[in-house]
Amino acid sequence: DGMNVLFIVVDDLRPVLGCYGDEIVKSPNIDQLASQSMVFSNAYAQQAVCAPSRVSFLTGRRPDTTRLYDFYSYWRVHAGNYSTMPQYFKENGYVTLSVGKVFHPGVSSNYSDDYPYSWSVPPFHPSTEKYENDKTCRGKDGKLYANLVCPVDVTEMPSGTLPDMQSTEEAIRLLNVMKTKKQKFFLAVGYHKPHIPLRYPQEFLKLYPLENITLAPDPWVPEKLPSVAYNPWMDIRQRDDVKALNVSFPYGPLPDDFQRQIRQSYYAAVSYLDTQVGLLLNALDNVGLSNSTIVVFTADHGWSLGEHGEWAKYSNFDVATRVPLMFYVPGVTTSSVSEGERIFPYLDPFGHGLGLVPQGHSKKVVELVSLFPTLAELAGLQVPSVCPESSFHIALCTEGPSIVHYFNVSEEKVEEEDNGSDDPYRCFNEEPVAFSQYPRPADTPQWNSDKPKLKDIRIMGYSMRTIDCRYTVWVGFNPNNFSADLEDVHAGELYMVETDPNQDYNIYNNTLHG
């Protein structure tokens, strides 16, 4: 009789997780989920900013189809009346529930998180969310600031809590309610951290002594990076602690010691997030639903931590577009679970790491736009058909294929034995491909380069990632008719993954277009 779905989406989380091979982070609960899941190590968002990415994966359509590249339009009015993933589950008899940040709030989800289309009851938002950007960070002088780096004493916070703690409590309450009902549910839980400000309970700093924190491997702006590709991280410049550093626009750089503090606090915020995920999954065990609930864990996009001299998202690099993606499917990714068996005991990040490895793991390049058909297939619903070339008039179709067929493939030897993986021409006939894109207002970094409004977009960076390469072209774009002029190439980037994993050496000009 079908599976429930617990869909966990995290804001701005790049895969700094033990299960993705990160050696510093403490993420035992997410690692434990991975140890029972199919984990995709090459998953990419379609645009590295919150609202466009979320509308894209929740509708299964790419940004060129949702026509949302900023925060200021509602797709049903502005592009087409597209069904969403939760709406599809709701229409198939599920109770659909939203907790925290699932849709991006505001006009891009009709000021209602797309209720009542997507959700059975009005979405829950934590009451303390409104203090996120207030002066709640105590400085060295004892005064309160609106800082980027913001470890806090939770007892001093408004209501003595933090938004993600409230979301976990509400999600657990809903699990307890649904346990007694006979209806299947689709519960989406959206966590805020590690989105800025990096505000988390201060004890998590203890996990990351500053002397263990390094700079990014490539903390400089690459010599051949086209200026249009660079994002000037305006949002972090506006925080009190960064403002006080008075770094020059647009290239900075931030002082080394402050870079290490940002990295330290990002890791600490991830460990705080991990405890919340751990409490939530432990509750799934407690209510006896671990054997009948699919769990999906992902993020809306990544976040640069100083790589290429960049911070935040807003780019086409892997650090901004790559996301964690894992699926726990009882009886599929794990042997069938007996009633009452504990799958997700809570693990204390201050305890000893277990060093868990993913249950199954695929290096196949996949996209978040595939989430909708994949979840439909896993839940036994009819998989929506693939959209035709133009689909503005079609309410239900998806622009990404289901990736369920990758689940049962034992990891085949990656065919790189032919030593051809550094041949740039191979990039264009490789399958599969992940597409991402990012708009810019101009060829050089401006105050609005990170988040241009639709009317100000002049250039669109279309990017493709294969197993071997990251290839991006920045082309002229007309916001009045949403058209890109592929002949009008402003700049290009080509990085070979094997020899240049950090994407520092752009070979676009000396290969294909010399």
Helix-strand blueprint:
Layout: E1 4-10, H1 28-34, E2 38-44, H2 50-59, H3 63-66, H4 75-78, H5 85-91, E3 95-100, E4 137-138, E5 144-145, E6 149-152, H6 163-180, E7 185-191, E8 198-201, H7 234-237, H8 240-243, H9 256-286, E9 293-299, E10 304-305, E11 311-312, H10 318-321, E12 322-328, E13 360-367, H11 371-378, E14 434-440, E15 459-465, E16 469-478, E17 483-496
Parallel strand pairs: 1-7, 1-9, 2-13, 3-7, 6-8
Antiparallel strand pairs: 2-12, 4-5, 9-12, 10-11, 14-15, 15-16, 16-17
What's this model, at a glance?
It is built from eleven helices and 17 strands. The chain has helices at 28-34, 50-59, 63-66, 75-78, 85-91, 163-180, 234-237, 240-243, 256-286, 318-321, 371-378, and strands at 4-10, 38-44, 95-100, 137-138, 144-145, 149-152, 185-191, 198-201, 293-299, 304-305, 311-312, 322-328, 360-367, 434-440, 459-465, 469-478, 483-496.
